[in-house]
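User: I'm preparing a small set of examples for a lab meeting where we compare how different chains pack in three dimensions. I only have the primary sequence for this one, and I'd like the structure in token form so I can line it up with the others. Please keep the answer compact; I'll paste it straight into my notes.
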Amino acid sequence: MKNLLEFSYEELVDEILNLGLERYRADQILDWVFDKKVNDFEAMTNLSKEHRAFLKERFKIPFLKLLDKRVSQIDGTTKFLWELEDGETIESVLLYHPGRITACISTQVGCPIKCVFCATGKSGFVRNLSTAEIVAQVLSMEKEEKKKIGNVVYMGMGEPLLNYENVVKSIRILNHRKMGNIGIRRITLSTVGIPEKIVQLANEGLDINLAISLHAPSNFKRDELVPINRKYSIEEILEAVRFYQSKTGRRVTIEYVLIRGLNDEISDAKKLAEILRGLKVYVNLIPVNPVDESLKKPSRERLLAFKRILSENGIEAEIRREKGSDIEAACGQLRLRKQEIKTRP
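Assistant: Understood. Below is the structure token output for the 345-residue chain.
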């Protein structure tokens, strides 16, 4: 049985035609799934009973099973823990901003990158998500909350560029006007920086937002915070970013998690401004969300000083406002907590 959420629009139309059905049936089905959030052919009442039975024998439309949901009493941030068909679990988050709702979605079960400040890496890496499992996160949140999601960030569990084909296909599905219908400039992909994949992405013709999780201004420091830096240096990553900008003309966001005593010195800010000079970037300064007691947030004064140094050197920067701090909204925290409970004697 084929998973309908794995199909691009063009693939689904071809599949419907090959089954001997009219082309417009694809649009009818997609309207039920993506607009009405219906994943049962029996409920698709503008299809005949014969067509419903015929399609039900050939396709499944699996939304995700909700295991846990937490809502912040501070800002409404909502975190979901989903169970996949094989019993693995992933997280997604809804972030509420004035005038928009953003879905933060996962691309892998666990993560192989093992950034020292990230709970997802502590839970280990299991596998890539399928295209359908990525798309289903958005559909499942929309169905659960009865709200339309207008923005998507690939910033949840996992490294998107290590699941390249499924991620790019899911972007096209979520963007297509007869499917997810989310504006392409309202989709952001965040990566630690896989240079050859950034170059490949630049050639896809996708006008998405790109964010680079840099977190340090030197290879010496980044090697400790983001171990994959030993394979892909800062210089290689920024060279790929230059190519990306030459192809797309888009500004790139630099994500920088600030950790007291590790990467928050004034000298770090000056070095960061130096290596970013000449690039069209925006720096998102993020006070660390501690996953253990050894990681501390910088003081407010240090955050402001870091931002000031960047601004004085012509680098636009903002300090990200924390969301969902009362519900452990950072990537992987809820899943890791469930795993710990499961393994307790």
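A couple of notes for your slides: The first strand starts at residue 2 and ends at 3. DSSP finds twelve helices and 14 strands in the chain.

User: Perfect, thanks.
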